Amino acid sequence: MSVLDLVPADVSGYRLGQPQRAGVLTMVPVFGPAYPGIVPPRTGLKLGRVVTYGSVELTNPAASGVAIVPLHVGYIQDSAQNHALCRSAFIAAGQTLRFDDACCVQESQGGYLAGRDQWFFVLPVELRGEALAMRGANRYSKLWEDISRFNGRHGLPRRGHLEQVLTRQRAGLTQYQSRLELLEGQLGAVFFLGDRLVGVEIAPDPAYFADVWMALVCFAYGPAAWFATDAAETDEEPFTVDGLDGLRGVLDERRRSVAAEVREWLAEAGWRLGEPVEEDRYLDLRLSTVSGERAAGQVVTDGRRLVYASLFTLAV
């Protein structure tokens, strides 16, 4: 069974590529059929305003095409406290949608970035289960205790300030976007932390995935890898080769070894997801939540056809 079979939709036509590794974080690229008519997040989503704590408005300024809001997207912004969303949603072209169940991820004022530095992220995987469970709950401080525990686990002050990781460790975290290469035609990725499956992310098309690539690899899965300690990461010995042909041979063997290792991890992933529960719809598109003992997330389908998936582990 392929790990893609864990996705509760038709995944025919999708395939996995050659694994890539950066320390304890392994990324397996996903390729497959593009779904037309979905606008990429950078052009199809704009943060309109923070109405009040826990309530934000997103707009789809595109002339045509529906926006699928990335699950657990958040915004670091100027002149307003930083917020993240607990759920995905559809926004039609030219429309604005208000999220009254957003969570504030900055417990008190301060820590704002300059306007030129505004950017969006996806919640760290260690917080995503709690955030998903709190969708629909209109309480802006609902994630502060979990953020405080998240910070404490990583030796940081126990406060509900997510920017302690996302902004203060940003220089280190953003290295993952270059250490793991986004490939031409790639529209998804499977993420492992060590030998444990931690995420399956599939976008409607390569342009959409390119827009969320940094938010996912650097901020959703990067923090867990950044803070992890693994002796194998520092104990690897340098290659001993004779000439360019020898280096090519060693690299080919290394790639085969990593691919075989990852195939074993995929076979032993062990996620069991329940039946999708529909949350929203737009024309033929259906947004559903799926959950199990070890994983959860949301998917968008057109009939049985997969359009979007963001699935993550509940135990990091």
How would you explain this protein's 3D organization?
It comes from Dactylosporangium sucinum. Pfam families: ARPP-1 (PF20208). This is ARG and Rhodanese-Phosphatase-superfamily-associated domain-containing protein. Residues 14-312 form the ARG and Rhodanese-Phosphatase-superfamily-associated domain. By secondary structure, the protein is α+β, with helices and mostly antiparallel strands. It has helices spanning 41-44, 125-133, 144-153, 163-166, 170-173, 176-179, 206-220, 222-227, 231-235, 243-267; strands at 15-16, 20-22, 25-31, 46-52, 55-59, 67-68, 73-76, 83-84, 90-91, 96-99, 103-104, 119-122, 188-193, 196-202, 277-282, 285-291, 295-302, 305-313. The protein has one domain (3-223, 263-313). 27% of the residues lie in helices and 28% in strands. The model is unreliable at 110-117 and 230-235 (pLDDT under 50). The longest helix has 25 residues, at 243-267.
Keywords:
single chain, 316 residues, alpha+beta, 4-stranded antiparallel beta sheet, 18 strands, globular, ARG and Rhodanese-Phosphatase-superfamily-associated domain-containing protein, ARPP-1
